Amino acid sequence: MSVRCLQIMPGLGGIEAVTVEAAGASGGAALRQGYLAIASGMVDVALVVGVEKFTDMVGAEVDEALATTSDSDFEAVQGMTPTSQAALLMKRYMHENDVPADGFAGFALTAHANGVANKNAMFRKAIKPETYAKAEMVSEPLNMFDMALMRMALPRSF
Domain locations in the chain? Predict the structure, then answer.
């Protein structure tokens, strides 16, 4: 869905729109842009819409696209991947804030519970805390339930 498609919706014509792309941080970056536009007084109201689309690519094309999200001089050359970077950040957060190993379980448990009654949810089965605790590690301390599936976020900020 392009920004133009959203602009021609009833009531949205003639307004400024922008696409915000920041790899896995696009949603947060778009939300920040909306916040800053309001906080600066530039606008009174901002609409931030997120659209996820990762279906145009498969296999090696996905890896190639994801490789462009890191700093090749300082991260990729050292073997850093988005997953390993997230694991290091999570580990540091846990250390600085004295978060226990199961401190993030609530996110996965809630997401899966919310999917049970949602016919459009990708995962429609609730998980138990024991299931989360026994889940395979992807990059310590991230387990398979902490990971997002491969998809690209293309949030829009109006």
Answer: 3-157
